[in-house]
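Pipeline run #58 for the internal structure catalog. This entry was flagged by the ingest filter as a single-chain record with no existing model, so it goes straight to prediction. Upstream metadata was stripped on purpose; only the residue string is passed forward. Reviewer on rotation: M.T. Logging verbosity set to normal.
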Amino acid sequence: MNKTLATPSLQTMDLSSYAKNIHSTEDLPLFDDAVEAGKAGALRAAYVMIWLACAESLKRRFREAQKRDSAAGKIVGDIEAKEREHKAVDKFVLTRAQEYGFVSDSGHTILNHIYEMRCVYGHPYEEAPSQEQVSHAASVVVEHVLSKPVKLKHGFGKQLLRSLLEERNFLDDQQSAVEAFAKDILPRLDESIYGWVLDAYWIELEGFAGDPSMAIFSRRGKWFSRTMLLEIGADVFSNDDWHDKTLKFPKVLMGVCGIESVFKGIGKRAQDSLVGSILAESGTRASVLSRLEQLNKSGVLTKRQQERFVKHVSEMGISTIRSAGLRTLTCYGKLIDAMKSYNWYVQNPAIDLIVSNGPDQAAELNEEQQINLGRNVLQAGEGHAGSANVFLERLSQDGRLWPFDFVRGITLESFTNEDNRIRFKKHQLGRVLSAVEKLAPKQRKQLITDVALSVDSGTPKARADQDAFGDAIDILEDYTWTEPLVKSLKAKAASLKVKEEAP
């Protein structure tokens, strides 16, 4: 009796679930062939096609990288030379992929095993792979190669830095252009070289910081580094590393880390070091203080850092403050002190700074500060400070140009002081009333009511002077809208007169 040998059942498998994780469509055709082979039960062919998908993907990555990296270009040339000589290149490609950084060390070990087994299974007289072995190969190749975008490493990084540091026309000298370039190039860099790129860049930038002939490269470096840190996060370095770097690259990092989003992430010691560097640098380049001012405004400075900044500003001259471009709010205390000096040579520059900074910056002050600023400007004007006189004359033409509470302070100071003591400052009163007249009716009414209430509750600073009351009332009566204040002054004058005449 003849016996028929049993034919082993065909083992089929579906590898298509791995394909969805493949990054580039260019890597799909060979892997799709592996999928079809698996469905047909040709596991040996599936295993070989999985490896070919891996090897060809690595070659493609070198070809893509060579567009921006000469080191990758040399590898492509070596691969093509070997292929022309009909030499096996897969092992060479895998080794170069590890050296270049396309494949990690652990990934190289695993992939090398897949390559060796591909050589075994590629021969028909050898044992075919099992379903588990094919599935493992597909998983490894997709995880370590096919799922990853092309990332450029040190070779490209060096070429990139050369262009940024040496080619003036490499990018347009505009912040938006540099930021757009940084955002475009960053996804192509391997994450492992982020810190290396920044370190290498900052070494060069620090070397020529302050050189006017290299200003375009310094600006570019600041914008590129900032954008890079904003994209990848300041935690690319540890807090200890940041502290070391603020000591090694103080001039560069003053600009790079002088914005809220980066400053917050570098750690307190690095922040303290950076604040110290900025304060020291301001001795020769006052404009750097604007960086601390912005950080202070953002609320990211510690209490101690704020104190250091405020103290430093208080010790600066007004002319230096003006050259630093500091805002009225930042130097408010210094401005008040200057206007209280009774020295025209100190008062005039302070008022010039207030005026040049403009009404929008005065509006950043709180209500109390605006009133106090207005009072002191009026006091300087009464003391015949030239800049105050010029400003009050311009204000008289339209009081709406400056914040209401600032004008309110000027007006209050004309009748009562900060302690609500009544005394009249009539030298500027005509200009003050002319400015008030230009206010919106509702604001004008409120202001006159406020002054009238101040007079009602006030007491004379010195012995009652009926003539002073009379002179002020005469000026006020030229305007119909001053009637509530006129009534208050007349009533106050009458009550004081009664008191004087009382036995």
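catalog note: The first helix runs from residue 16 to 19.
catalog note: The longest strand covers residues 421-422.
status: ready for reviewer M.T.
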